[in-house]
TrEMBL record:
<protein>
    <recommendedName>
        <fullName>DNA-directed RNA polymerase III subunit RPC5 C-terminal domain-containing protein</fullName>
    </recommendedName>
</protein>
<dbReference type="InterPro" id="IPR045576">
    <property type="entry name" value="RPC5_C"/>
</dbReference>
<dbReference type="GO" id="GO:0005666">
    <property type="term" value="C:RNA polymerase III complex"/>
</dbReference>
<feature type="region of interest" description="Disordered">
    <location>
        <begin position="152"/>
        <end position="190"/>
    </location>
</feature>
<feature type="domain" description="DNA-directed RNA polymerase III subunit RPC5 C-terminal">
    <location>
        <begin position="448"/>
        <end position="695"/>
    </location>
</feature>
<dbReference type="Pfam" id="PF19725">
    <property type="entry name" value="RPC5_C"/>
</dbReference>
<dbReference type="Pfam" id="PF04801">
    <property type="entry name" value="RPC5"/>
</dbReference>
<dbReference type="InterPro" id="IPR006886">
    <property type="entry name" value="RNA_pol_III_Rpc5"/>
</dbReference>
<dbReference type="GO" id="GO:0042797">
    <property type="term" value="P:tRNA transcription by RNA polymerase III"/>
</dbReference>
Length: 695
């Protein structure tokens, strides 16, 4: 057995549990004193204890005859503390600092694992510790000296003022009653320093008698460290398995058993994060980083994660700004939250932060003062918005924190266009909320596809524009040539129509057109759709894009009945944003094509005479209405719409009189309310067609 065991048993010892001093045994530590410099030989003048608080104080003498002791300093300290008089309350009765007080603090709140072991004649006797205390010098006498000094100054001031005082002034006293204390206030008060000090002062001191280490009384007390009763009845053999005995010695910690949080608030564990679903991973990451390029986000994902899945998830919690992803405002500010600075609700914070994000889609720079003026939020809230996505620059404002990501814009044009549609919907909402002027909307546009031009040099923009112009010219020539060939094949006669193409050279001025690098709009692919429609009409086929657009227009007007052109474009942009990437409507729809589809769907343009001082643009003054819906209210709606050809607003009594003249008593109040609700809105006691109310 000895050859097989690397760690043989040398000796077996019996262990006894002594309980005589279990509730009275303390371990004293002196952390500022070297272990070889003990206080055993220093006279202990007094000792006292507060058992409930485990607070101990010990007075030890100072050797005033030592050559290292400065007598003048000792006298000065004693005079400052006690003054010239000597009584029972004096700290230094000899008028010399001849002692120092050591005060204790608890080194460990839980001492259930600690014992004192006493070895004797092959036996080990252990006694549990009641407390572990660290003793450090106390300087409470300095507080007493300060109190004495303030009392002397107060007495001198009172003596000087009493000579000039004739009689005391009568002062008004205001009596106030304190309101009932809440539970939270009680808890804060119980944790305050003043409350703890008051609680400590309530327990009285128990004075002790100190015995030296070599004193006979000390030797007698040390005998209690041995187990007094070692009979077989009370000291039975411990019958436990090794695992049970180990668990008794080292019980599991309560903190280790507590469940770990899903996502730490201050430290982000990537190993723990990757155990969550992909959508939760991206949401937690975006809440922490606020702004990130897509390439960096893919680098944080686990190996084998598809970019398509990441793109689908990132669009749910973030918006595209200058080619980078910025976390959405409603993710940072949930509905029930509020501002820690001003206390405004989360809805107001989300609108303000969306405005800052939208400003960065227009320009690289944002001025905090301008944002605060528009959003009416405090400077601290605005600064929090900007800290999430920008860096302050001296005398310039706040610059977007990341450079424009042109690579992402080129690789994912469908995502870029989808995000552009979403931003247009947000822009229209911000226009109404903050009453933005046209100057705010037209200054320094830098949408998704044009943002790169702001970080390019002039030569780069010129070269790109020239290349784009040449590309457009070549495409135009190719399309015209294809039309020639189709015309020749379709003609049944031998006469061939000669199509002359006038080619004009591209000048430098024309090549400066950078419209191809502006934001996505409804007219960027007009020529493509016109060509496709003409080709498909020749072959007798129906354009699927036109069919999809017609379905959208018909369903929209059956819900709204009356729409302005600008409102229809806004709804169309929101519809595009809800479509999956790669949908056929993403190929580009012009304003002209949209308007023609409205007319073809059975709608009519209502010529509403706006007042001359109206600020609405000609495009905004175009109002379309569904003329025939197929229900029982078509004639009533048509009569109502004809009334608005005389004025852009009408009173209800005028409408009711015209309806009664046309339909007699057959038109009830409920029917009139239904027709008005379908086509009009009421504002200031007047009725307007939907979308024509001028703010």
């Amino acid at each position: 057995m000895e050859n097989e065991d690397d760690d043989p048993i040398i000796q077996e010892l019996d262990v006894y549990l002594a309980k005589s001093l279990a509730e009275k045994l303390y371990l004293f530590q002196y952390p500022i004193r070297p272990s070889m410099m003990t206080y055993d030989g220093v006279p202990h003048l007094a000792a006292r204890i507060k058992p409930k608080q485990q607070k101990v104080e010990v007075d030890m003498a100072i050797n005033t005859m030592s050559p290292n002791y400065c007598r003048s300093k000792g006298e000065q300290i004693a005079f400052n503390v006690d003054g010239t008089g000597t009584d029972e309350t004096s700290t230094f009765s000899s008028k010399l600092m001849d002692k120092q007080t050591f005060s204790s603090i608890q080194a460990a709140s839980n001492t259930s694992r600690y014992v004192v072991a006493f070895y004797r004649k092959g036996e080990i006797h252990v006694t549990p510790l009641h407390g572990i205390l660290q003793l450090r010098p106390s300087f409470s006498y300095l507080d007493k000296a300060d109190t004495k000094c303030r009392e002397r100054e107060a007495a001198n001031d009172a003596g000087d003022s009493s000579q000039d005082e004739v009689e005391d002034d009568v002062k008004q006293v205001t009596v106030r009653f304190s309101r009932p204390e809440s539970d939270q206030a009680k808890q804060r008060r119980a944790q305050s320093y003043e409350f703890l000090q008051k609680k400590q002062a309530e327990e009285s001191w128990v004075h002790l008698h100190y015995c030296g280490i070599k004193d006979s009384r000390s030797e007698h007390e040390r005998q209690y460290l041995l187990c007094q009763n070692q009979t077989a009845t009370e000291n039975q053999e411990l019958i436990k398995s090794p695992s049970e005995y180990l668990e008794m010695l080292m019980p599991p910690s309560v903190e280790e058993e507590s469940e770990k949080p899903v996502a730490p608030s201050n430290v982000l564990s990537m190993a723990q994060l990757r155990t969550l679903p992909l959508a939760d991973q991206i949401k937690i990451l975006m809440k922490n980083v606020k702004v990130i390029p897509f390439a960096n986000l893919m680098g944080l994902m686990a190996a084998g994660t598809e970019s398509i899945a990441v793109l689908r998830c990132i669009q749910q919690v973030a918006m595209l700004v200058q080619g980078n992803w910025v976390v959405k405002s409603d993710v940072l500010y949930p509905k029930e939250s509020s501002s820690p600075h001003s206390g405004v609700p989360a809805e107001v914070l989300c609108r303000g932060r969306d405005f800052v994000m939208w400003k960065f889609t227009q320009d690289r720079w944002v001025v905090r003062k301008d944002v605060a003026t528009v959003t009416k939020l405090c400077q601290e809230d605005v600064k929090d918005f900007l800290d999430h996505m920008a860096i302050p620059r001296i005398n310039k404002g706040w610059e977007f924190i990341l450079p424009f990501d042109e690579d992402f814009m080129k690789k994912h044009p469908d995502v870029v266009q989808r995000q552009s549609m979403l931003w247009k919907g947000i822009q229209s909402k911000l226009e109404k909320v903050f009453s933005l002027s046209k100057e705010d909307l037209t200054c320094k546009k830098m949408d998704m596809s044009s943002a790169s031009s702001t970080v390019m040099t002039g030569d780069q923009v010129l070269n790109i524009a020239r290349a784009k112009a040449k590309e457009n010219q070549a495409r135009l020539e190719k399309d015209l040539h294809r039309k020639k060939e189709q015309t020749k094949l379709a003609s049944s006669t031998t006469v061939v129509a000669d199509v002359h193409i006038k080619e004009e050279p591209v000048s430098d001025d024309e090549s400066m057109d950078t419209s191809a690098y502006e934001s996505f709009n409804n007219g960027m692919a007009n020529g493509v759709h016109e060509d496709e429609n003409s080709d498909q009409s020749m072959n007798g086929e129906k354009d699927p894009v036109a069919k999809e657009l017609l379905d959208f227009v018909e369903s929209t007007f059956r819900r709204q009945y009356v729409l302005t052109m600008s409102e229809l474009k806004r709804l169309f942009n929101l519809h595009l944003a809800s479509l999956p990437p790669g949908h056929i409507l993403f190929s580009g729809i012009s304003d002209k094509m949209l308007q023609e589809t409205v007319i073809n769907s059975g709608c009519k343009q209502i010529m509403v005479p706006f007042p001359p001082q109206s600020t609405a643009t000609p495009e905004e003054q175009k109002v379309f209405a569904l003329w025939t819906c197929g229900d029982t209210y078509d004639k009533e709606r048509q009569t109502l719409l004809e009334l608005f050809s005389k004025g852009h607003r009408l009173r209800r009594n005028m409408i009711q009189a015209r309806m009664s003249q046309e339909f007699g008593e057959s038109l009830s109040k409920q029917q009139l309310d239904k027709v008005l609700k379908d086509c009009c809105v009421c504002y200031g006691g007047m009725w307007y067609l939907k979308g024509t109310v001028q703010s």
